Amino acid sequence: MxxxxxxxxxxxxxxxxxLLILGTRGKMVKGELAACxxxxxxxxxxxxxxxxxxxxxxxxxxxxxxxxxYIKLTEKGEKISNHIAxxxxxxxx
Length: 93
What we know:
Elements: H1 7-11, H2 15-25, E1 28-29, H3 30-37, H4 41-53, E2 57-61, E3 69-73, H5 75-92
Antiparallel strand pairs: 1-3, 2-3
Helix pairs in contact: 2-5
């Protein structure tokens, strides 16, 4: 994990949308998050990996079947998500 967040990580496709969705809905099954973000899951998977490496989200897997993977915001991710939501609210006015 990088010590400093690179703003460029937020410029990547779907990064802001992922943070906003998780900020609104909380912990989500990875497949459900991918369906909310885009039709193709490859770009979403790549973005999840990027956001995990930046320390904005975590990915955990169930230890029993069906072994679903869950995605949720970290404390830093929550702060950024809140700021993005504030910007979005201003843009709507």
